[in-house]
Structures are given as C-alpha cells and as structure tokens.
Amino acid sequence: MKVELFHSAGCKQCAATREALRNAAEKAVPGLVWREVDAAMELDYAVDLGVMSLPAVAVDGMLVFSSLPTPVQLGQELLRRASGAVRGR
Amino acid sequence: MLTIGKIAAQAALTTNALRFYEREGLIRPAAKSPSGYRLYGDDTLERVRFIKHAQHCGFTLGEIVELFSLREQKLACCGDVRRLALEKKLQLEARIRTMKAMSKALDALIAGCPDEDRPVDECAILGAMARSLKKATT
Hints:
The structure holds two protein chains of two kinds.
Chain A: E1 2-7, H1 12-28, E2 33-38, H2 43-49, E3 56-59, E4 62-65, H3 71-82
Chain B: E1 2-3, H1 4-11, H2 15-23, E2 31-32, E3 38-40, H3 43-56, H4 61-72, H5 78-111, H6 124-137
Antiparallel strand pairs in B: 1-3, 2-3
C-alpha cells in the first residue's frame, strides 16, 4: 500500500500533523510506502488525482481525503483498506 | 480621507463595485463627513488595488477575505499564503483541463459538420448533441 500526503512547502498546518499522520499510517499498516508530495513540484500528478486543497491524502493513487484527516481517521481508513473492505475500488 | 468617488476614480472601478466590496466585508469606511458621506482611509486604495490583483489571479472575494485575515494574523506566515496560492493553481489547472476537453469535443463536432448549406434540422452538430443528451437521460 502506498500513502501519499500532498502538501505545500512551508505550510504550518501540514508540518504540524505530518509526523502524527505518518505514525498513525505506519501503525495501521506496517510496511506501507509513505510519500510526501510537494504539490508545487508535482502539480500535474496532483491535478490527475483531483487534489484541489492542501493538505490531502491519496492511497494507492486515489484521492481519499481531500482535506486533512486526523491521525485516527487515516489509521481507520487504511485498516479498512488493508482488510480488503474496499478491494476492487 | 477619501470619498468613494475618489477611490473609484483612482482604482479605475465603479462606485457600485466598491459598495459591493464593502458589503462583502473587504473594505470599510473610517469615518463619515459632516454631511453624512462615507470617508475611507488612504490604505483603502492600496486594499482595493490588492483586491483587483487577487481577482485577476483567480481568487474569489471569499478567498480574498481569507488572504486579508491571514495578513492580520500574527501567527500566519508566507507558507500559509503560498498554500492558498497553490490551491488556487490546482483548481485553475483542473479547470483548464476540463475546458481543453470541452474544446476537443467541439473540434469533433465541427469536423463532423463540413456541409454548411444543409438545413438546420439536418445539422450534424445539433443532432450529435441531441443524441448525447438522449444517452445521458436514459
């Protein structure tokens, strides 16, 4: 599983929660791939995924949170996906 | 102190536009003249120019209110403004893609209608649009 956090460099809101989100994600699904994407550097990719506001979270190339989730929300969503509840989506 | 007319003239806007900005909370008068006219501080002109430029960059009035409030927050920094600008860029890029797709769809319709002498009820463009409308509603 690959989790991508789209952010804007220098954004305080992004920086404050980044670590907590990463910890929650890695705790929910050990061994996942965590990538932090500066939307300015990968603008086309962000637009491909439908990112319109920042920060946003994509899982396996699909926009899952269009605004910042809490670490609990992210962890629960990843667990749900890991258990196959959204397989084939 | 400046009257609304003076600001409008210097900013190349109508007084109606300025009154609209005022209703939206973007500018506010600093005082009233003895005869009851609203008077604005010198900084209002700078503010109005900022609004015009931000609108030119695609920001809505609501977003401009947010930009102003960031400017007034002591804890806000450039990174917060950069995030808003980047969000606007993402939204504009998405719209450009949609418009390009629309333009491409029109290309196909235009190419499908080479005979301009045909009566309008045989128009290939209108026919194609009617068919796609039917498809969308069934």
